[in-house]
Amino acid sequence: MRRFALLALGLGLLVALAACGETEPAAAPTPEPATPSPEPAETPEATPTPTPTPEPTPTDEPPPDDGVDEVTVYFARDHDSGVWVEPEVVALDEPTVAVARAAYEALVAGEPREPGRMSLAGAGAQVLDVNIAGGILTVDFNDALVPDEGLGAAYEEALVQQIAHTGAQFEGVDAVQIRIEGAQVESLAGHVGVEDPVAPDELALSPITFTSHFSTDSVDVGDVAVGGEASTFEATIELQLVAPDGSVAEDTFTTATAGGPERGTWEHTFTLPEPGVWTIRALEPDPSAGEGRPPFEVTLELEAG
After folding, report:
1. What's the DSSP call for residue 11?
2. d(CA 282, CA 228)
């Protein structure tokens, strides 16, 4: 019995030792308290970027607030080859914003600066009204537009083209309606119809013009560049430089940027070696060898000093 008691005691001790050697399961980690997500910051309202005001595109119309002090007017030139029209810049006595009216008033005043140019309007001609609408410039004259002695067909055509070209230079104008004392008329002098708006005719322009200088302009001794517009055969312009003593100092030619019937620009530099009045002659070539109309010719006098 004692042996069984000892055996039982030994077994109890072994069980107790085994129980003491077991590892307790690890306790689950206590979760850290969740860090609260920061509330999204309020987004400040964006300040709207002001839209820049676009700068206006420069145009010829309308004129500056204080107006313009010069206008382009088309005058006539009577030549053996025909009656032509050509532009001239006219200085105004005072600035104006009524540019078209000022141009027509200068046309009827008939005071071109360049010798050989003239207006074919009558001495008592007046501008009554000018307006532009739908591509048509309407200009109203009094009944003195045509001189008392009347106009032949070539001169009447030139007067009509003076009026048409002067009006067509303005932006948006395609043709010019001529009225007399507020009424449409069939013709100004019985040769040329003007009941409908008249478009400018490029062939009415002088075959060669000087636009760089006026005659009697003063220039320095030495090189001087002259130029203008032309519509000539094969774009050729024959040029002569005539010295103060009347001798031909230079005989040459130049070429325009376009040949007839198109219209181009041209330029040539002459040397004026001494003081005095020098004359530049510009002539169109004669492809007909004398069988057609006389070739057109125009001169410019410059005083070198």
Report:
1. H
2. 10
- Looking at the DSSP bridge assignments, the partners of residue 230 are 208, 264
In the numeric block, the tokens 């060669």 are attached to 208
Neighbour tally for 116: CB within 10 Å: 15
Contact, 224 vs 239, CB < 8 A? no
Q: In 10 A of CB 293, how many CB atoms?
A: 11
Contact 149, 124 (CB under 8 A): no
Map tokens 């920061």 to a residue. 38
Question: CA 161, CA 258: separation in Å to the nearest integer?
Answer: 22
DSSP state of 275: S
What does the pLDDT look like over 33-80, one tens digit per residue? 444 444 444 444 444 444 443 443 333 445 556 799 999 999 999 999
Q: Are 60 and 170 in contact (CB under 8 A)?
A: yes
SS3 state of residue 100: helix
Q: Which two tokens stand for residue 237?
A: 């312009």
Q: In what order do the strands lie in the sheet with 183-184?
A: 127-133, 136-141, 175-180, 183-184
Alpha-carbon torsion angle 247, 249, 254, 260, nearest 10? 0
Residue 7, token pair as written in the block: 């055996």
For 137-195, what is each residue's pLDDT tens digit? 999 999 999 999 999 999 999 999 999 999 999 999 999 999 999 999 999 999 999 99
Task: Write out the DSSP string of 273-293.
Answer: -SSEEEEEEEE---TTTTSSS
